[in-house]
Amino acid sequence: MGWLRSGVLGILLAMPVVAQTPALSLERTWIDAAQQKVQRKQQSLAEVARSALPSVVAITTVPKALQAGGIADDAQHGIGSGFVIHPDGWILTSAHVVADAAEVRVALVDASGKQQELTARVAGSDMGTDTALIKVDAGRPLPALPLGTSEDVQVADWVIVIGNPFGLSQTVSVGVVSFKGRTDVMPGGQEIDFDYIQTDACINPGSSGGPVLDAMGRVVAVANAVNVSGQGIGFAVPIDIPRAIINDLREHGKVNRGWMGVTIQDLNEQLSRSMGLESSRGVVVSQVVEGGPGARAGLKVGDVITRLGSAPVDRAHALRWKITSQGAGAKVPLTAQRDGRRFHVEVELEPQKPKDTLQSSGVGGAGIDLTVPPNGE
Fold it and tell me: For residue 27, what is the DSSP state?
């Protein structure tokens, strides 16, 4: 199917941040909705959108290839969306929006409708989660959107997406959460490390990087991809994914990912029967890199991993995310089964290899192919 990452979308309600907001701390680069002192309640969708609009930005980029060739045609610029997460000028967007950009420009619109355009610096980017953190100096505190948690949003809940679809800034779209935990999609033909949130709120090219808000104005996801051959089918990255890596992006410009050196896949009933297993719970080790962390710990092809620490393991996508997010050097306790016998291993993770495919979740099936145009064009 013809899918593409949208250039801009989604925005949820933001509580305006005034000058008294504490300065940026080393511990947190964002405003956490759970820590806010003000009592928040469900509002009308109009109130949510009106409050959030000043925090949503339109992003345009000049690709390095165009700059090198001396081309400056606006039609060839990349477009996308983003949103302020801290009044000091920190903005969250999608990595593909700013990928290979020689210049990144951000347009803000305040509550009075006055527009301000600024040059942004890309502080860090992570293609594995399609997340980027950029920084602007506006000379004033910017209104930031509070980050909620994707765990709170449920199927059929109302959500609001605000962004810059097709360059139409300050566009608001409303819909519901259509599905949670969508894994059978493949952006750019590549497997993802996380589960998408599906929504019927309109997402179009230029919407990527925009916030997806709940009825209380909290960001619960980031608009990311759309099926150009269908209607009412858009995808967003759960906000818990960017939250886990924001500080790494700010401090190091990249994410310290752990690598276990194995390929894993979901254990379904058919595979379970073929292996003579009594249960279909867990994930199967289908490949082990010789000399890698998993091999040194004693894992073998055919082992069924059932627990990470004390937490049960049910899906390969979820385990892959938990492993990679712990970072190199972490010691990961796993419980597995082999030939009907349960055993425990501790795997000391190594840095993830560039363009590594050996720790792929290996989920069967081709999934849905998402085409990713450069810079969300």
Answer: S
pLDDT tens digits for 179-190?
998 877 766 666
Structural contact between residues 142 and 17, judged by C-beta atoms closer than 8 angstroms:
yes
Of residues 328 and 359, which shows the higher confidence score?
A: 328
Polymer length in residues for the chain: 377
The kind and range of the H/E element at 45 are helix 45-52
SS3 291: coil
Q: Which residues contact 57 (CB under 8 A, 6 or more apart)?
A: 81, 82, 83, 84, 91, 106, 107, 108
What is the value of pTM for the model shown? Answer: 0.77
For residue 62, what are the β-bridge partners? 103
How many angstroms separate the CA atoms of 55 and 90, rounded? 11
Residue (of 122, 88, 109, 118) closest to 162 by Cα position: 109
Number of other CB atoms surrounding residue 374 within 10 Å: 16
What type of residue is 179? F
Tell me which of 77, 86, 94, 130 is the catalytic residue: 130
The identity of residue 283, as a single letter, is: V
3-state secondary structure of 139: coil
Task: State the average pLDDT over residues 192-221.
Answer: 91
Candidate list 51, 178, 208, 361, residue with the active-site label = 208
CB 193 within 8 A of CB 38: no
**Cβ-based neighbours of 7, under 8 Å, separated by 6 or more:** 78, 79, 80, 81, 97, 163, 164, 165, 204, 205, 206, 207, 208, 209, 375, 376, 377
Catalytic residue status for 178: no
For 183, residues 6+ apart whose C-beta sits below 8 A from its C-beta are 192, 195, 196, 315, 317, 363, 367
Q: Of the listed 96, 169, 325, 360, which one is catalytic?
A: 96
Does the annotation mark 208 as catalytic?
A: yes
Per the CB < 8 A criterion, the answer to whether 207 and 223 are in contact is: yes
Stated as kind and residue range, the H or E segment containing 90 is strand 90-93
**What are the backbone dihedrals phi and psi of residue 225, each rounded to the nearest 5 degrees, phi first?**
-150, 160
Give the integer Cα–Cα distance in Å for 119 and 121: 7
Q: What is the pLDDT of residue 369?
A: 34
CA 308, CA 327: separation in Å to the nearest integer? 15
Of 8-17, 25-34, 114-123, 335-344, the least confident: 8-17
| 55 labelled catalytic | no
